[in-house]
Amino acid sequence: MISNRELFLKNTAQTSDSPRLLEIDRAEGVYLYGPNGEKYIDLVSGFNVSNIGHRHPKVLKAIQDQLDRFMHVTVYGEFVQAPQVQFATELLEVLPKTFESVYFTNSGAEAVEGSMKVAKKYTGRREIIAARHAYHGSTQGALSLIGNEEYREAYAPLLPEISFIDYNQLSDLDKITDKTAAVIVEAIQGEAGVRVPDKEYMQALRRKCTEVGALLIFDEIQTGFGRTGKLFAFEHFDIVPDILMSAKGIGGGMPLGAFVTPKEMMDVIKANPMLGHITTFGGHPVSCAAARASLQVIQENNLVQEVDQKADLFRKELDIPQIKEIRGLGLMMCLQLENFDQVYQVSNYCASQGLIIDWYLHCETALRIAPPLTITEEEILKSCKIIKEGIAKFC
Ligand code: PLP
Fold first, then answer.
1. Which of 2, 65, 83, 323 is the 20 to 30 A CA-CA neighbour of 201?
2. Ligand 1 pocket test: which of 143, 145, 222, 227 has the largest number of ligand atoms within 8 Å of its C-beta?
3. pTM
């Protein structure tokens, strides 16, 4: 019989020449299980998706209840479906009052696409500014904002009238002018290797956007839903963006994204022409039911409040000279090593010892630490022990 690994290589799209080929049979809490009894602690969370762990029972129950009612119906603007309107209402309740309307998408990149369209139409301007080293997704609009020229060049031509500023660089804010429709930034740059901006910078960026009438769009696709020790990372900077984009951790493991805006801003997609932004599956009832349950789990279990203590334990345990720097906020962390070879060897060693750890798309010299927020002290200690063994062997 042909194995699943062979079928994977033969019949599914490959995104690199050296896939990890880790076969997953099931997942539960912070653990992933292979088909031959392998058991791994998951320190990647499917790239910041599984904030409440895998297959949380409350999410499973919400999904099952929704499956018993209906699965797909028209998801945007016409039909009233309870999981979607209830989740939108609950999400707005935990956000500042300026946020008044939620548009649901399937993914992060689609939230980026919708936000760009709203910003252009609302301001009547065409220029969008993004940050160097940014990652906002792989669709052509989102890719136009990627702060890595190699990726833009490979798929050119992309969107016109996009320009770039250096992230966390006050002097570059002068490039934001009254021609700028929007500035799109990650609240913390993730794939660049977890770059945390200064509060002073974010506040100056907010002021500059307000001054010239440009919208400030925050990409909280990685940072949202408790990951950084606040429900959303913008809270760290005492500012409120004009548009908030979310995905990944929003859906409790189900595919969902969203962008949230003031009502008059979102209303631009209603007319001239009507149906200015539509989607067949975005805000799917089953995903919204899962998202409601997931937000409830985060709130009822005080998961956000526990993040800093857990992050401190990682930092204390991993305070060793071979790790040049530990960057991050809360449980969005990275361990800076010297080169990719070390990162590769250490992550392979960790996998052989039952720990899944990874690196960053645009920072291959750093290890990614982003466990489910439900990880326990004992699991953190075990994880750090394995990482330190790997580092002792290969760094
Ligand atoms: N924005 C950020 C900061 C991301 O990290 C990602 C995905 O990694 C995206 C946007 C794109 O999200 P998706 O892969 O759901 O399209």
1. 323
2. 222
3. 0.97
